[in-house]
Target: Progestin and adipoQ receptor family member VIII
Amino acid sequence: MAGDILQRFITYTLNIKHLSPLTHLSNLIPSSLPSPRPTVAASRVPSLFREPYILSGYRPVKQDWRCYLLSVFQRHNESLNVWTHILASVVLLLRWWANVGILGYTLDAAFLPLILFLVSSLSYMFLSVTAHLLQSHSEHAHYFFFFMDYVGVALYQYGCSLGHYFYTSEPAWRESSISLLFLPRAAFFGWLSCAGCCFAKFRYQRPYPLQRKICQLIPTTLAYLLDISPVIHRLFTVSWTHEPSQLFHALQIASFLLSAVFFSFPIPECFFPGHCDFVGQGHQIFHVFLSLCTMFQLEALFQDYAKRRDMVVEVFGKRQLWWACVSFPALFTCCILTALITMRHMKKQLWQNKSSK
Ligand SMILES: [Zn+2]
Model:
């Protein structure tokens, strides 16, 4: 249906090009779009693309790039991984505007961490959608887009730590030793998560050994424990009846822990090989819980911001808020460089593997 409409639009555009002096522009419009090829069994794709216990629904490699973009409307074993984060981005933006409408905001330094949290959340969702949509093109694409996905994860971790630090932390936590150099340490652990995940993907080939998960999980767990520490402290020291955001913070932690379980283990597909190829894979459930975690965080941070916005600048100072603003793109640059350097080594390895065959 969408293809028909697009085709009609293209035909119409090609007809009017004879009437228009801008012929060279209309020449750029393709006369037809390629259709993605039907999905295939796991045995028909290289081992790199095969997921444990997922036996069918794979998109063939080496199709036109547009086929992978258009595969957003195709039924394959990555469809739900793509759509969970597309829908989550839309809901996140809707909840953002709703909260802004209800609670109001002033575009000043105190609002900055909330904007960075939104940017970091949308970044990880966008990079995840890109990775799941385009990775099937080739081994090169698979590595490149998943390295970029890890950049998104690092940014999101740091975005969370900014929100928790500026809006959620209690005076007693800020006086404790854990708060010392909190933001530089959070940025470092964010980068370490990205570097650990990139290294694990570069170093270990399928079937992946346990060490790969360890390389991914240790830095991300360290980052999470630090980033969540102001929230944990408040949940245990402040009455839940006085702080409306407490419930949302508890829900964000519960969602994150559940997402970590489904990220770490291929459940439920390990119990039903071939039955979760399209719906019900552990990775899809991981996406759902991580998206829920982000939603609950947004609600909690808006509540905390509404209550404390007048004292944020007074407590932390404008300098620290602006430092947070600068450190965010700096972390992004470091992570991108790490991903690109790993990609360079990966390219060499792929080339060596090809020439040794
Ligand atoms: Zn994913």
Observations:
- DSSP finds eleven helices and no strands in the chain.
